[in-house]
Amino acid sequence: MVRVCSAEKKKRAIPHRLISGPEQRHTNCVAGEFLWRSAAAAAMTVTAGSRPVWQPNSESSACEKCRRHFTLVFRRHHCRGCGKVVCDKCSEHRVILPESYNYGPSKQRVCDTCYVTLVAIEYQLGLEQGKVVPPDYPAIRTDLLRRVNSYLSLPEIGWGSEGDHNGVKVSMRSIESSPVSCIRSKMLIKAPIKKVMEVYSNMDVWRNWNPYVSSRTVEQVDGTSKVMTAVYEFPVIDKRDSCFFTSIMDSSTVEALEDHKGLTVAAISVDHPLCPVEKGMVRSDMHISLSLLEPVDDGIYTHFTSIVHSDPKGLLPPFVINAFLSRGSDHLRGMAKFIEAKLQS
Ligand SMILES: [Zn+2]
Ligand SMILES: [Zn+2]
After folding, report:
1. Ligand 1 mean position to 82 CA, how many Å?
2. For all residues of the chain together, what is the average pLDDT?
3. Which residues does the UniProt record annotate as the domain START (predicted)?
């Protein structure tokens, strides 16, 4: 296998649409998230096109992906795509590898990283050959903008009284023609917007305060927008996942933000060819997930408002909804603590 030694090599190995366009200079942030970490190693392997040398069992006491330690019952497996030692849970997918791998037409075990990369390469080829229809991003963007304006303009009067969940003020309201309530959480984070955004927009660090959510970038659309998928784990009930288009916007695009100095990160559910609904997963419907960040006290602090109107789908008893609510405020408080601690260190 060719060793990855320069950014140029990496770029050449990866489908061009994922790095072309205005996001090219964003290699350190969201585009880079997908490019360097998850794709580079596997893409090199796949495009280099030969069967990798397997990592010796003796070299690995823990799964290369989740870092859980192997035992007699928690067993080692090899990814046929990259040759790394991984656990069963981190290599659930089976794919037909390129001919040069010499596995023939039978499906082979691959790790999650290789799977994501292979599917992305297939998507890219499909786009180039006109076999795959990409999401209608201009229409999605228009819809998102419409919803952001409408949710930011909701009158104060419909919101229920604010309950204080350890510093996070939570209130709910019903939305016409929707069976689920809209939840608004507000809190003060003792850090400037820039710091908050740095942490908040990097979903990889979310695990620091919320072990129940994992996410990845599906497609970088442009410098400020991308499609992501997130998996949420709950006690008792089935896992939920969502596939959403998310964008960072300020008052230059959002009418309702005119009187605000802040910015908003908003997301709505989309269908994406790279996000099929997987077995054992329930796809939730995100009408809106909106975070409004506003500077207070001359910009040294940030007022953080989260508005979430999302249908978790499936029949859920009230105690689950309540658990969801408290988890939402736990999530915000955890994030604030993380950011404030980071600022002090
Ligand atoms: Zn693992
Ligand atoms: Zn692999």
Report:
1. 14
2. 82
3. 158-328
